[in-house]
Write a structure and sequence with these properties.
Elements: E1 5-9, H1 13-21, E2 25-26, H2 32-40, H3 68-75, E3 83-86, E4 102-103, H4 110-113, H5 115-123, H6 125-129, E5 140-142, H7 146-172, H8 184-187, H9 211-227, H10 246-258, H11 267-283, E6 296-300, E7 310-312, H12 315-322, E8 335-339, E9 352-363, E10 366-378, H13 390-393, H14 397-400, E11 418-420, H15 421-430, H16 436-456, E12 468-476, E13 482-489, H17 498-520, E14 529-534
Parallel strand pairs: 1-2, 1-3, 3-4
Antiparallel strand pairs: 5-8, 6-7, 6-8, 9-10, 9-12, 10-11, 10-14, 12-13
Helix pairs in contact: 1-17, 5-16, 7-9, 7-10, 7-11, 9-11
């Protein structure tokens, strides 16, 4: 009569305990474990972002010594639940989904909770909100789409050209040439600077001729012209469709960026590089964060837990990977490639990311609640752009749990590889950035989350009475700007540390306060949740 019958599918002992404390009675479903195991199999539902496997140790504790909860569950065995908390909607019996019950998921959220879906949705953001995703989401392409694959190839080449200019400025130093004459040691006495790189013979230790820089300058000038819309009245070809030999250019760029080959740069070229990069920075929000080594990260479009993710600097490797099935349950072509954030903030020389929770309680009108507590996840090995191992670059707990902390790691790093946001704020204060959390990071994360939701809302299955808790993952740039990586449906509630044991319990408690208690008492405490948007 009070409509306080609930069902929990999955290992959520805290949700079960909190509901029982509110006087709710659980309707237990027969065979739930076997059915969930089948649904959890990536071969059945590879797109479901299940995250880390839930630990069962808390579930095994006996919190019903008198058996009263089991007895009451037996009495409501034929009743429909009024509240359903499940790992994912697809595991829920459709007969249980009545019009007036509360469910902790919406349908078709893959529009922003898969890497492929988020990539596609944010491409439309400019038309929906007139916001530029390039200011908070690293450039991303779906390799299974021919147009996007071609756009990625163009982007890779243009990024290589910009990176070459940055490397040339960085490495020039005392090697500046006063005239257009190429050094005798490189070309022979008295010969003028006229040879094209693709006609020259390069060998290890030999400086590359300045024509390589000249080509990069010309390509970047054309790209800047396109960005500034100076090509409207004339038929300017794409910078990546010009007569430049891109295969040769990329091979020479690889030598400079990854093999230590040196560049020769004239004084005039140095000035041109500086001016051109300055103008490009005004047009390209990601110019600084993209770095100089042209690293990209390739991900299965609908996997989680870091499965199948690879960092690479080679265009050929990206294209080959996209058309070979190297990860279980990943269809050929169902990959995304995203620009790696090279200029990122590290803590004690180690990469980290931020897991940030938020709840959507309505889509019409869109209503979003931001959780004011979050946590950081550290890698096990020191950060390095010269070594692309997963232990250095993937912060997922499900990845890092397989690696021991490197002996080269700073002893100030937490042994369990987790920090709370409070610890991070203390670190920022020690670095002289005490206001960065509240003035830069939090507003940036809120804006990115809202833009992602707005871009996908027309594709989400709306249902009154539902709600959903999400986990967004962010990197932090050197300038302390947050970069959204992905959004997870069903974020893990398994504690991997003392910090996550406390925070995961708190966010589950506060979520129930928000979606249940607040209905009866609008002034009740909702813990650390903050309403950040309501249409």
């Amino acid at each position: 009569q009070e409509k306080k019958i609930f069902t929990v599918q999955g290992d959520y002992p805290i949700i079960r305990r909190l509901l029982r404390a509110r006087g709710w009675v659980e309707r237990k479903l027969p065979g739930t474990g076997r059915r969930l195991e089948q649904h959890h199999d990536p071969q059945h539902y590879p797109w479901l972002p299940a995250e880390e496997e839930e630990e069962k140790e808390e579930e095994q504790c006996d919190d019903d010594p008198s058996g009263i909860h089991d007895l009451m569950s037996y009495l409501v065995r034929d009743r429909l639940p009024n509240f359903i908390w499940t790992n994912f909607l697809e595991a829920t019996d459709r007969q249980l989904l009545q019009q007036d019950n509360v469910v902790n998921h919406y349908s078709r959220v893959d529009a922003f909770t898969t890497k492929e879906g988020l990539c596609l949705s944010l491409q439309n953001l400019l038309w929906i909100e007139q916001a530029d995703p390039n200011t908070f989401f690293p450039r991303c392409y779906r390799l299974g789409n021919m147009d996007e694959r071609e756009a990625f190839i163009d982007d890779f080449c243009l990024t290589a050209a910009r990176s070459l200019l940055k490397l040339a400025l960085e490495e020039a130093g005392d090697m500046l040439v006063k005239t257009e004459q190429v050094p005798n040691s490189a070309k022979g006495a008295g010969k003028s600077h006229i040879s094209h790189p693709k006609h020259s013979t390069a060998w290890p230790g030999c400086p590359l001729y300045s024509e390589l820089v000249e080509e990069a300058l010309e390509v970047c000038k054309q790209h800047l012209s396109v960005l500034q819309h100076q090509d409207i009245d004339r038929n300017t070809p794409s910078p990546c469709r010009t007569c430049i030999d891109w295969d040769h250019f990329l091979q020479e760029y690889y030598r400079v960026a990854h093999e230590g080959a040196e560049l020769v740069l004239t004084r005039q070229q140095r000035k041109q590089c500086q001016n051109l990069l300055q103008h490009l920075a005004e047009q390209l929000p990601q110019l600084d964060m993209e770095g100089k080594l042209n690293i990209w990260i390739v991900k299965p479009g609908a996997e989680s837990q870091g499965r199948g993710i690879i960092c690479t600097t080679q265009l050929e490797e990206v294209l080959q990977l996209a058309w070979t099935c190297t990860a279980p349950s990943v269809q050929v072509g169902r990959w995304v490639v995203q620009k790696y954030v090279e200029q990122l903030l590290t803590i004690f020389g180690t990469k980290f990311d931020i897991r940030q929770w938020f709840v959507v309680t309505d889509w019409k009108p869109l209503t979003v609640w931001f959780y004011q507590d979050c946590y950081l996840r550290f890698c096990s090995w020191p950060f390095s752009l010269c070594h692309l191992e997963r232990a250095r670059h993937l912060c997922n707990v499900s990845v890092q749990k397989w690696y021991k902390m490197s002996p080269d790691q700073d002893p100030r790093l937490p042994p369990d590889k987790i920090w709370s946001n409070k610890q991070f704020q203390e670190y920022l204060a020690q670095m002289g950035q005490a206001d960065a959390w509240h003035q830069v990071l939090v507003p940036g994360m809120k804006a990115a989350i809202l833009n992602a939701l707005r871009s996908a809302r027309d594709r989400v299955g709306f249902r009154k009475g539902s709600f959903e808790l999400y986990g967004a993952d962010f990197l932090v740039g050197e300038d302390l700007q947050p970069w959204l990586l992905e959004i997870n449906s069903c974020p893990t509630m398994s504690p991997s540390s003392a910090v996550t044991r406390r925070l995961c319990a708190n966010v589950q408690r506060d979520t129930l306060r928000l979606v249940l208690d607040r209905k009866e008492n609008p002034t009740c405490s909702i813990g650390a949740f903050e309403l950040i948007y309501k249409e």
